[in-house]
Structure prediction request, 312 residues.
Amino acid sequence: MYLGIDVGSVSTDLVVIDEKYNVLCDVYLPTAGDPISAIKKGLKEIKERLGEVKIKGVGTTGSGRMLAGIVVGADIVKNEITAHAVAAIHYVPDVQTVIEIGGQDSKIIIIRDGVPVDFAMNTVCAAGTGSFLDHQAHRLGIPIENFGEMALKANAPTRIAGRCTVFAESDMIHKQQIGHTKENIIAGLCHALVRNYLANVAKGKEILPKVVFQGGVAANKGMKAAFEEALGMEVIVPPYHKVMGAIGAAMLAKEYTNGYTNFKGFEITTVDFTPKSFICKDCPNECEIVELWSGNKLLSRWGSICGKWNVI
Prediction:
């Protein structure tokens, strides 16, 4: 079996696949500002579900991929663009566009002839991410799980200013006050997020079918419908859309390893890890150097542009 771990700012996802890329176990956990604890919890859950398993390869991805790789003993550490593209191509071999929207960032990946050729990411503004919908759902008093179904019941989606979450909220309150229904407002929020995504993240990109929609927000049927209306084409949501990054990391691990793995085993769930950091003042770059300790032992250090401090 092969393990893939995707550590993001909002969620930490773990997936175990077999030799034929079948998903045997998937775990989706909140990172909650503590990726190491999330990784440990995920590994415990995998062991509880699958029992004694032999992991032959481990891949990590996401914004916390370096940290995760050191903690678990990864065989390959890859950026999320590569991991998401690999997984999308596996489920939809002739995919040409990947839309990925998570809790705190969003991205577009352009694929031609099975090869990623371009991408763009939004990591700055919440208006193009899942937190936009989460915040507005809370404001409306609606569970985010019901958001998509309610959006599909709209008969005339309300036009919401979606370039900024602050403006969107004030506009939404105004539309409520003048009598727009919650269903129409919710559908309007979905359309606002789609407009924001296409105008910013996908700006200048040629979106061609087949289009694959992944990330946590892909579970929202209202978002899928809004993208299909805006693009004028079918949008495919794969079965494991929430954990595609982890699936891609596991697939890359399978391709990379050759019977030997650096995986430290499920015993790491009992080991204490302590991340630390400091700013190097030796040059104007002032790099943030990240360290990982276990007790008094330095396990790894990374982050310098020149490589001076790196211990991996």
In short: The longest helix spans residues 182-201. The mean pLDDT is 88. The radius of gyration is 21 Å. DSSP finds nine helices and 13 strands in the chain.
